[in-house]
């Protein structure tokens, strides 16, 4: 920007620079204007009680985007963020002041007032849209700050949207009234809100621009007219007069602006201060320029403000959290593009942009040549010329990206939008920045383990046999215990128990969770141990304690293991609910396996597991009587989980036998216990499978479990299936048996030559009514099968051919149980008189 003429000042030496938050054009204009003015003091819109932190903006290790975090000392969950990027005008003003040794401070309401007002009333005055970011609910009321307990990030899969379209969605409903003056005022409310959060956008729209940055570039960057900030001030004065003071935001703005004027008055009274520069949102300029109202009037406005004890710190932030889509009222649509606009050489903005996009596509192994880049640049520049624009904007770049770089593939264009237009740049703060001790320990541990906190989701597979990977796993599990969900566990198949998968995604809001967790201890280890111990003491159900025990071993919380085991023994001794006992067993089985892999001594768990299994075996036969379909399905799942646990415990016992091979007595005892436990479990399942008063889903599932365990051979399984399909049960009851038997796997039907023909024969023999009644259950049974399994079943049926009796049907017809048939035979004998049963006469 060329040198501008003098700006009309509201009083001696006061220069009010109205800016667009996070606007690269505004940022460059502010830096140039500060060079021209050379002020003696600078005031910046921001929480006044964070002024002491401004000096660290140029410290080593400070790299935007970053945010000021303010939270209540007695309730860290009450918190708010004030984010800044390198292209934020406020950030440029701060760095200019520190580097030029000019006194600088924030002049907006303190965070102590903001948080107190929000806690009292979410819509209370004192909560600003311009800088404060709501981080709990994306798309919520931008005027209401939100507690940062839930993720507020924009959807990483946001489709490619031109800047022009997105801007229209945000505010192009405009300030005009509908032709019907009595129509709804929704559009007017939108205009009022946009005027406060992004008044530059309304000025751009009034000038015929759909992109505020393009308007600013044309007006500020590429023209030599002087007095741009004066022009903005005059435009804002007219805009405020048009919007009026009748919106819900008016009282809040009045209080904020009264505080800003009070800070301005104090600054002007300081010795040696002759010129003061005020950097604030354009909306507030009219309230700070010209003759200020009496200080007593502002004092009355500010009287009675409540405060809360607050702590503040710099924290890393991300570009995606600067986006409007994240729920941030002052957000921008394309932070990655704005970063490029501000940092790139003005002569190579377009070419550099396409080069970066091409690099991202090449990183995905996509063929993008230099010719693609050249043609993209030409197309974007041609589109700009056709539209009468001096430079290509994001709308032209998006269209050229889709047409040339992505060759019309919108999926690839979405990738460019997500990774380039939005961007996932993560800032950093100096290591010596004030943080809670737990955060300092976490940062040190992450650094020593060579983990990277990245906002981009990344899958990692840890080998627990390697000390460093094991330490990473322990850290992630400890953080999970503390509610700091940096990583989400992933299922890893076919790699043994020594492999562990994680999906890592670092969200800036997790710093709040760290602060909340600091009440448990000053280190991650101490905090995890303390929280586990507290949860063990508060647990009321056996399943809760066993799950906690599993977490204890995964997190290597040795200090908490004793209290957890004590709670487990105490609860197990008094808990007689079979369902709760079965729910507790799987976690113990997994715990023993993890203990074996991680080298943890879990010998004591064996006795607990055997005790629980014995009580399950004792109570299960009575628990399965008279169950409806829903209850039967629930207990069927429990039985399946316990069955897997019994096999797992047997495997652990076999490992123990191998490890104690030199001690024959210990090995024999361990092996004997495992064999006895497993046989006891199988005997209980067999007794239930032989009963006729148990729900068919449950009996069918137990039959399948015993077949897979080689307790029943194929012939016995076929015999039981034949009995289930031939006895006097309804088709629906028979379908339930099949559902339980097949479960979620149909491979048995492909490989067994008897079972499939039997089911096929039964199904083909149903009349229309019975078939319709059984169809929903059959669909639920066969529907989840994978396509290859369903195809294999169809091929097996096709091989039998029309009119050909399937293999196994004769065997099914020959099945005869004299005991079950006894009553029917006796009745038939009475009907036929003295005719001997089986006579051919």
From TrEMBL:
<feature type="compositionally biased region" description="Basic and acidic residues">
    <location>
        <begin position="165"/>
        <end position="180"/>
    </location>
</feature>
<dbReference type="InterPro" id="IPR043737">
    <property type="entry name" value="DUF5682"/>
</dbReference>
<feature type="region of interest" description="Disordered">
    <location>
        <begin position="140"/>
        <end position="195"/>
    </location>
</feature>
<dbReference type="Pfam" id="PF18934">
    <property type="entry name" value="DUF5682"/>
</dbReference>
<protein>
    <submittedName>
        <fullName>Uncharacterized protein</fullName>
    </submittedName>
</protein>
């Amino acid at each position: 920007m060329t040198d501008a003429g003098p700006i009309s000042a509201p009083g001696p030496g006061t220069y009010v620079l109205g800016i667009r938050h996070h606007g690269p054009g505004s940022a460059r204009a502010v830096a140039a204007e500060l060079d021209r003015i050379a002020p003696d003091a600078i005031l910046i819109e921001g929480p006044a009680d964070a002024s002491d932190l401004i000096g660290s903006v140029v410290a080593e290790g400070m790299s935007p985007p970053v945010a000021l975090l303010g939270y209540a000392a007695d309730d860290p969950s009450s918190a708010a963020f004030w984010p800044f990027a390198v292209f934020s005008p406020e950030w440029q003003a701060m760095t200019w002041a520190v580097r030029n040794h000019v006194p600088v401070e924030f002049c907006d309401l303190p965070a102590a007032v903001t948080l107190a007002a929000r806690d009292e009333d979410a819509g209370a005055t004192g909560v600003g849209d311009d800088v404060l970011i709501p981080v709990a609910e994306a798309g919520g009321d931008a005027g209401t700050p939100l507690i940062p307990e839930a993720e507020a990030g924009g959807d990483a899969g946001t489709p490619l949207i031109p800047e022009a379209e997105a801007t229209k969605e945000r505010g192009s409903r405009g300030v005009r009234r509908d032709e019907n003056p009595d129509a709804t005022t929704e559009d007017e409310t939108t205009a009022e809100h946009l005027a406060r959060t992004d008044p530059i956008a309304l000025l751009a729209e009034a000038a015929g621009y759909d992109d505020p940055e393009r308007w600013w570039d044309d007006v500020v960057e590429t023209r030599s007219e002087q007095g741009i900030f004066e022009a903005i001030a005059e435009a804002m004065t007219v805009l405020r007069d048009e919007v009026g003071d009748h919106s819900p935001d008016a009282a809040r703005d009045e209080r904020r602006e009264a505080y800003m004027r009070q800070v301005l008055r104090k600054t002007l009274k300081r010795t040696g201060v002759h010129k003061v520069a005020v950097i604030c949102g354009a909306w507030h300029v009219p309230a700070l320029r010209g003759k200020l109202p009496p200080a007593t009037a502002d004092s009355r406005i500010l009287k009675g403000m409540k405060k809360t004890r607050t702590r503040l710190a710099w924290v890393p932030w991300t570009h995606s959290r600067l986006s409007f889509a994240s729920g941030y009222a002052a957000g921008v649509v394309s932070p990655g593009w704005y970063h490029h606009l501000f940092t790139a050489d003005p002569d190579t903005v377009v070419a550099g942009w396409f080069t970066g996009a091409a690099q991202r596509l090449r990183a995905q192994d996509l063929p993008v040549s230099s010719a693609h880049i050249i043609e993209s640049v030409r197309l974007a520049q041609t589109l700009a010329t056709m539209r009468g624009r001096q430079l290509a904007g994001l709308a032209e770049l998006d269209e050229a990206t889709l047409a040339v770089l992505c060759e019309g593939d919108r999926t690839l264009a979405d990738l460019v939008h997500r990774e380039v237009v939005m961007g996932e740049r993560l800032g950093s703060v100096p290591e010596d920045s004030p943080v809670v001790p737990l955060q300092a320990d976490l940062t040190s541990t992450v650094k020593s383990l060579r983990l990277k906190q990245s906002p981009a989701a990344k899958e990692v597979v840890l080998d627990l046999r390697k000390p460093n990977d094991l330490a990473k796993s322990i850290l992630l599990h400890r953080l999970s215990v503390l509610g700091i969900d940096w990583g989400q566990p992933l299922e890893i198949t076919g790699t043994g128990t020594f492999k562990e998968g994680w999906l890592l995604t670092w969200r800036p809001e997790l710093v709040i969770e760290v602060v909340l967790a600091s009440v448990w201890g000053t280190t991650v280890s101490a905090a995890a141990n303390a929280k586990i111990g507290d949860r063990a003491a508060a647990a009321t159900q056996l399943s809760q304690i066993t799950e906690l025990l599993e977490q204890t071993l995964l997190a290597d919380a040795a200090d908490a293991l004793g209290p957890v085991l004590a709670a487990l023994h105490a609860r197990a001794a008094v808990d007689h609910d079979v369902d709760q006992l079965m729910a507790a067993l799987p976690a113990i089985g997994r715990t023993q396996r993890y203990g074996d892999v991680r080298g943890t001594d879990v010998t004591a768990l064996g006795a607990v597991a055997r005790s629980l299994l014995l009580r399950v075996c004792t109570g299960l036969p009575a628990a399965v009587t008279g169950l409806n379909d829903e209850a039967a399905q629930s207990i069927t799942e429990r039985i399946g989980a316990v069955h897997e646990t019994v096999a797992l415990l047997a495997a652990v016992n076999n490992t123990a036998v191998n490890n104690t091979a030199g001690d024959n007595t210990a090995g024999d005892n361990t092996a004997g216990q495992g064999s006895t436990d497993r046989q006891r479990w199988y005997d209980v399942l067999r007794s239930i499978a032989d009963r006729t008063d148990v729900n068919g889903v449950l009996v069918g599932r137990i039959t399948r479990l015993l077949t897979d365990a080689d307790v029943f051979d194929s012939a016995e399984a076929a015999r039981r299936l034949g009995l289930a399909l031939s006895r006097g049960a309804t088709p629906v009851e028979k379908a339930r048996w099949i559902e339980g038997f097949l479960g979620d796997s149909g491979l048995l039907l492909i490989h067994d030559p008897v079972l499939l023909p039997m089911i096929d024969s039964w199904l083909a023999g149903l009349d229309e009514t019975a078939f319709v009644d059984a169809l929903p259950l059959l669909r639920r049974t066969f529907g989840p099968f994978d396509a290859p399994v369903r195809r294999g079943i169809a091929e097996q049926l096709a091989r039998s051919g029309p009119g050909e009796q399937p293999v196994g049907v004769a065997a099914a017809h020959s099945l005869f149980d004299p005991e079950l048939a006894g009553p029917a035979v006796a009745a038939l004998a009475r009907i036929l008189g003295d005719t001997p049963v089986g006579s051919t006469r």
